[in-house]
Write a structure and sequence with these properties.
The complex is a heterodimer of chains A (191) and B (156). Chain A has helices at 30-39, 45-50, 63-82, 143-165, and strands spanning 4-12, 17-23, 95-98, 103-108, 111-118, 125-133, 170-172, 178-180, 188-190. Chain A is of the alpha+beta class and 191 residues long. Chain A has one domain (4-190). In chain A, strands 3-4-5-6-2-1-9 form a seven-stranded mixed beta sheet, with helices on both faces. A two-stranded antiparallel sheet of chain A has the order 7-8. The longest helix of chain A is centred in the last third of the chain and has 23 residues, at 143-165. Chain A starts with a strand and ends with a strand. Chain B has helices at 7-10, 14-38, 42-49, 53-61, 68-78, 95-104, 107-122, 133-142, 146-155. Chain B has 156 residues and is mostly helical. Classes of the chains: A alpha+beta (191), B mainly alpha (156). At the A-B interface, helix 1 and helix 3 of A face helix 1, helix 2 and helix 4 of B.
Chain lengths: 191, 156
């Protein structure tokens, strides 16, 4: 028996709509779980030694926290306002990355949140899944990240099936932005 | 539902949140957008601004702490504004407010400003010279602080 996912509308702006996946019956959506998990993280001695800041107090100003703050602000404020546009620069700033088959990630430093980008270029909506800290060269090498990617891929396949059957669809908002139809937030996706 | 804000966000001071949103993330995204809009390469912009390419790359990746000088150089290289400082809407300024501002100035300060403005209007070198009748008429016709200029000529 598979698990069920629902889609929850999170943030809307003049340029983009942001949604999140939630496991049926869970307390919060997957993206929230990612942030709550990361805030509880306590750096090990090894991590402290490798830390770029050499900040043994692990205060709020450490780079790791800064990446998370940037990522949160990007998803909540900046992307809905400016849209999801891929920037070529590698580095610490929170930005979106598009992979194949509508799957992509919001990256901020070593952190990734995997999700689904749907819609035409320059007018994409984002359905966020879960993510984590990427310490390997590719996400496939990390079992946790690979699992999160699989969940998002399964959700995408289920959403595409719902598109084909006509249960849900992508419509345009008043200002021409892509958004999911109202029925999408009531739908249960089996993965 | 348990969608509360993460602690590292809720513990932030409001100005820190604003700094992170507006000046750390959004500003750098705007700079990247500008570069795409203008269709310039990083190499060209770096050359124009007199920077190393690696520096510009760090700026556009958000890894560099931006100074106002850096932003100004970037704007100059792209010949566009990253952000604009809005001008005050002078049409909303009432007569009463104008009077209030005038009263706040000391007589000497008010006189100095009037002399300078009159000198600018008339294009005269010395601001302390007495204006002729024609010059007074010129001031009236231009309608720029004319009344004040007339007063100061009487004083001088």
């Amino acid at each position: 028996m598979g698990r069920y996912l629902t889609i929850e509308e999170l943030h809307t702006g003049i340029a983009a709509y942001v949604y999140a996946l939630r496991f049926d019956g869970s307390d919060g959506h997957l993206m929230n779980e990612f942030f709550l998990r990361e805030e509880k993280h306590v750096c090990s001695t090894d991590e402290m030694l490798r830390c770029a800041d050499f900040n043994f107090n692990c205060s709020q100003k450490c780079t790791r926290t800064q990446y998370l703050i940037d990522m949160f602000n990007y998803i909540r404020t900046v992307a809905p306002k400016r849209g999801f546009i891929e920037h070529q620069q590698k580095g610490g700033l929170a930005k979106c990355r598009f992979y194949e088959n509508d799957i992509g990630a919001i990256s901020s430093g070593p952190f990734r949140i995997y999700g689904i980008f749907m819609g035409p270029p320059g007018n994409k909506l984002f359905i966020a899944g879960d993510g984590g800290l990427k310490q390997t060269r590719t996400y496939q090498e990390d079992p946790w990240l690979n699992q999160q990617h699989e969940i998002v891929s399964s959700a995408r396949a289920a959403i595409l099936n719902a598109f084909k059957s006509g249960d849900i669809g992508i419509e345009r908002s008043r200002n021409g932005r892509s958004r999911l139809s109202q029925s999408a937030t009531k739908m249960k996706i089996q993965i | 539902m348990n969608n509360q804000l993460p602690r590292f966000i809720s513990d932030l001071e409001p100005w820190e949140l604003r700094f992170s949103r507006k000046y750390r993330v959004e500003l750098v995204h705007r700079m990247n957008e500008l570069l795409l809009e203008k269709g310039l390469s990083q190499k060209e912009v770096a050359k124009k601004a007199g920077w190393k390419e690696s520096f510009l790359s760090r700026v556009l990746a958000g890894d560099q702490n931006l100074t106002l000088k850096t932003i100004a150089k970037f704007e100059e290289a792209l010949d566009d504004d990253v952000f604009e400082i809005p001008l005050p809407d002078l049409t909303k300024r009432t007569h009463a407010q104008g009077v209030k501002v005038k009263r706040r100035l000391s007589p000497n300060r008010s006189q100095k400003i009037s002399i300078d403005m009159a000198a600018i209007v008339l294009g005269v070198e010395s601001t302390r010279e007495t204006f002729s009748k024609e010059q007074k008429n010129c001031l009236w016709s231009k309608k720029i602080v004319a009344t004040e200029a007339m007063e100061l000529t009487d004083v001088s």
